[in-house]
Amino acid sequence: MQKFSTLKSIPAYLPIVNIDTDMIIPKQFLKTIKRTGLGKNLFFEMRYDDKGKEINEFVLNKTPFNKSKILIAGKNFGCGSSREHAPWALLDFGITCVISSSFADIFHNNCFKNGILPIILNDDKIKELSEYANRKEEIFVDLNEEKVIYGNNEVRFKVDPFKKQCLLEGLDDIALSLNKSKKIESFEKDLKSQKPWIFND
Amino acid sequence: MPNTLYDKIWNDHLVDQQADGTALLFVDRHLVHEVTSPQAFEGLRNSNRKVRHPKLTLAVADHNVPTTDRSKGISDKESKIQVDTLEANCKEFGIKLFGMGDKRQGIVHIIGPEQGFTQPGTVIVCGDSHTATHGAFGSLAFGIGTSEVEHVLATQTLVQKKAKNFRINVEGKLPLGVTSKDVILQIIGKIGTAGGTGCVIEYAGDLIRSLSVEQRMTICNMTIEGGARAGLIAPDEKIFKYLEGKPMSPKGKNWENALGYWRNLKSDDGAKFDKEVNLKAEEILPMITWGTSPQDVITIDGKIPNPQNEKNEDKKNSLERALNYMGLKPNMAAKDIKIDKVFIGSCTNGRIEDLREAAKILKDKKIASHVHAMVVPGSGLVKEQAEQEGLDKIFVNSGFEWREPGCSMCLAMNADKLKPEERCASTSNRNFEGRQGRGGRTHLVSPGMAAAAAISGSLDDVRKYQN
Fold first, then answer.
1. Of B107, B216, B239, B372, which residue is least crowded by CB atoms under 10 Å?
2. Tens digit of each residue's pLDDT (9 = 90 or more) over B74-85
3. Which residue of A has its CA nearest to B83?
4. Domains of chain A in sequence order
5. What is the ipTM of this complex?
6. Strands B199-204 and B140-143
């Protein structure tokens, strides 16, 4: 997994609440058997008209936001379907940080598996940061320090310590869990004797 | 210390716990479908890893499969690749698969319970957010992403943090024509789509206990629409009776032992819940959604909300956006909403009881001439059962199409979809923008309400058609 430590970008602001994963990447693009190549279809229905032409008013079609690495959005971002195609599409577009006042649980988890940092801030801070999008000014994200720096201001955010470590070091969590093979084996042994029906033996 | 049912299942599956609370949970049951698994199997191959317990995983193709004649296979090239890829992956890694020609094929959340693969007290995961359905059996069941699917295949465990305990109590009796779909829509309207974020919901109260196994599944299924990854109900004799003799249920001595364990699966008296909400069943009415979020609910007697009455600017904008997308005017009566299509099916309402409920309303009636309506049974076994009971004839005689099982127009990945501005009364679970097809407009309802809408040609009150 790609590491995440710091990030500097003009943020794109999408002031919509409850952005669901169907909106982020509609179903017709879930037929792929790959993780890559979804960026061009990110926010497909808001981004293109019926004929497939870019809709100029949509924020990610406008310069400089078509190069934004940070997306600021309304609350409950990523609700709905568990499709990991949503973070894959963001990543493929170049967005590696999403800032919102709340995230849906599965999407939030999926971000960390893909080197994307979801940051939770309160609505007032979101409003302040969105001004930087309006003025096309950069903001700076520092994961190690757990803060967003904007102009002469900064705001702290919280991130789960284990997830933070995985992001900073780009760790493969399957390898980490397999390091605990002894514990898994011992659990399985107990399970076989206590609840044999689980293994259908 | 008294524990909740969620606490108990959690504690019983802890393989390891780090100082910061990050836990490794054992996964008893893993369901796999074609859309969210190919990249996980590819990951295994690239890292030269095996599936740790192939027998604890069950696979089925459901999202992409055609619901019309299957004798010629899948005509959509990409869909076909995905379904073929699942088949090849299952063969390579030794996983049991119900293929498209198997009568046990169906929606992943319908076949799990049907086969007895779903069992009380287990941890069940699937790369699909509606995995919460299985919580109706008193299991901890939740949706995961594809990276997590790969993690489960490789390790039979999952990295998790404990969620909060949230209990929703529903007491009393439901009025005539009101179903568990109306109960869950009412709950989502009350708590909002982020109301359960970070929580596991336990549904309790005498109304919940009085519900059938299938009605319980409808409630747990839509837990995710309330923001919680998992919803569960303490298992009881109805659950045990349902599971007895199912192909993958425990047998003989294992059955006796399992029963002994299952009977203790309930929240202790005095267990602490971080959050609690109470509802009275008598006050629940037939519901519809009017907007583009499952929390946008009103009763069938209600009116479309007016953004002018909303003081919060964000909420006002979001109301206006939803009304605009849905092509509705403020203050319009719900019953004046004319529909073009009706879809009965999905993991929310594609089980035999759902079909019976709709058929009861449709018997000896014809659907409105401008309405195109279809029933997509949740599985091959549901379809077979319905045909044995003659339900297919009731549907067909009334003007419905009788289809093959799959996810179908719930998410419109196959050929079944709405055209722009087409309006559908749907028994599925999501009314998001574009969910049933680009520009399509979805109103979520119960199966009986969907049948009533088909007859009237507009959203209508199912109580009018009670026999």
1. B372
2. 999 999 999 999
3. A31
4. 6-185 (3.20.19.10)
5. 0.96
6. unpaired
